[in-house]
Amino acid sequence: MASPDELVFAPLGGVGEIGMNLSIYGLGNRHQRAWLAVDLGVSFGDEEHLPGIDLIMPDISFLERERKNLMGLVLTHAHEDHFGAIIDLWPKLKCPIYATRFSATLFEAKCAAERNAPEIPVTVVPSGGRVDIGPFNVEFIPVAHSIPEAHALAIHTDAGIVLHTGDWKIDPTPTLGAPTDEKRLRELGEEGVLALIGDSTNAVRDGRSPSEAEVAKTIIDLVKSAKGRVAVTTFASNVARVKAVADAAKAADREVVVVGRAMERVVQVARETGYLEGVQNFRSPEVYGHLPQDKVLALCTGSQGEPRAALARIANDDHPEITLNRGDSVIFSSRTIPGNEKAVGSIINNLVLQGVEVITDRDALVHVSGHPRRDELRDLISWVKPQLLIPVHGEALHLHEHAKLARAAGVPRVLVCRNGDLVKLGPGDPGIVGEVPSGRLYKDGTILEDSKSRAVIERRRMGFSGCAFVAIAMTAQGELADEPELDLVGIPEKNRAGEAFDDIVFDVVMSTIEGLPRARRRDPDAVAESVRRAVRAVINEHWGKKPPCLVHVLTV
User: The Metallo-beta-lactamase domain covers which part of the protein (predicted)?
Assistant: First the structure.
């Protein structure tokens, strides 16, 4: 009798980190499996550690090799950390994509805004609907989150049911969209859930995440009490928050002016899909300066300090249409993503220097998380009653705390894994049974580079310690044809004793060449390597840093 197919799971991104989500499920035996991918997201570059890198994406080399067995890609929702890598990486996979209407429409708008984006078809599945994708039957279960149409996925297989939560929370009073479908989740618990693959983002926070309804009330109060102009910044994709801002503006008899392309795009998609039905029309930035100060509200992109977004330009006083003055107010209806603190702080400081009143979540309930706190995690476990829980979507501490909570809540098996671990879910005892290739891809301009990319490594070094360029012209006989030329980029002009670095480096280049035996001076590679070592050593001696050194030897 043939042994039953194994169901396996492997995270390729989003475990041990927040962002860059990509999970895969396999059904079959170790020689051949059908694969299902869930989400394909990005995380964002950090200028300090990754200068010039715009986006970071998961390494999909394993899925490229398994392309003929990849049945499809399913999207839980349309946040960048869950669908932002599709345009760049889908051409390597060319698999069917499945999403609900809002996610599909927002993705279509994103493609339309990108230069030379490929044609990427998306199959639309109704919210609450089911679809067969190879041997997987995938059910889209509505959950509350900070974007319309977020879904947990119940993945039905012959080996059992897996609940992949995606991003979720329990919000009994969402201002837009359906609440988390407790009834269906309880029904799944009665059917029997083999494994719960769950969001750990807020596993370190006690209690419950507050409701969007409470934020909406706070924003109404703040906008009604404001005297001058008001600007509100939030994540563009948070349509419930956009609606709350629109309702506050209406209550205060203000016009809403939308500022920023990402916000304009989401507003358009939300109107197309019916999520802003009955909400007043918004105005374009050109009318902002013509409206009385107490009759206007600017809804802006830039809550994360993005340098090219609307709010950064307003704070720097270089936006062509939007200005703020003393007595005006800015509401940050968002949380600062770790890594963005410096950029957001700079914007806040610039606004304060202009006399603008800045209100953040430290001052009032102007933002709530879209992720579950500890009591909500306990509720889900009690509804679903999983045999196994695997924490995902979190850094090491979040995963650890989620695992501890699950054990205390009586989950029979709890397993913490890392990106690249291949986990057997069933049948039989679960456990890590292997490893699949995983890693990071860096989007550098229009080029995708792997983590070993010379450009990425060298640019990081150059950002820390500059670079020395040396050009040398030698005769065929091994004599200098002219004086060496130097260019020291990002290196101090003088050492602590006040001596010019140009002179120090020039002297060491000359003495190194003159000290080489004639036979080695006739070898351009030998000259270049000797000079490179000497230049790095002398700069290190006088500065304490070893910059990259590029030496070009020309034989004339």
Answer: 21-219
How many Å apart are CA 187 and CA 405, to the nearest integer?
23
Sequence-ordered alpha helix ranges (H) in 273-387: 310-315, 341-353, 374-384
> Structure tokens of 222?
């703040």
Phi–psi pair at 390, nearest 5 degrees:
-120, 115
Can you state the percent helix, strand and coil of the chain, rounding each to 5? 35, 25, 40
Copy the structure tokens of residue 79: 């946040």
Quick count: other Cβ atoms within 10 Å of Cβ 106?
A: 28
3-state secondary structure of 69: helix
Nearest-angstrom CA–CA distance, 71 and 92: 14
Scanning the structure block, which residue is given the tokens 């990005």?
42
Residue 174, SS3 per DSSP:
coil
**In this structure, what token pair is assigned to residue 124?**
């639309």
Which of 298, 299, 256 lies closest to 281 in space, CA to CA? 256
pLDDT digits (tens, 9 = 90+) for 340-384: 899 999 999 999 999 999 999 999 999 999 999 999 999 999 999
Q: Would you list the DSSP string of 79-137?
A: -HHHHTTHHHHHHHH---EEE-HHHHHHHHHHHHHSTT------EE--TT-EEEETTEE
The neighbouring-strand residues paired with 144 are 169
If one counts every other C-beta atom within 10 angstroms of the C-beta of residue 448, the result is: 16
pLDDT tens per residue across span 317-346: 999 999 999 999 999 999 988 778 999 999
What is the separation of C-alpha 101 from the centre of its chain, rounded to a whole number of angstroms? 22
Distance between CA atoms of 289 and 541, rounded to whole angstroms? 58
HSE-CB of 36 using CA atoms within 13 angstroms: 27
- Which pTM does this prediction carry? 0.88
Question: Which of these, 39, 26, 154, 135, lies nearest to 434 by C-alpha position?
Answer: 26
Q: Which of 100, 96, 114 is nearest to 54 (CA)?
A: 114
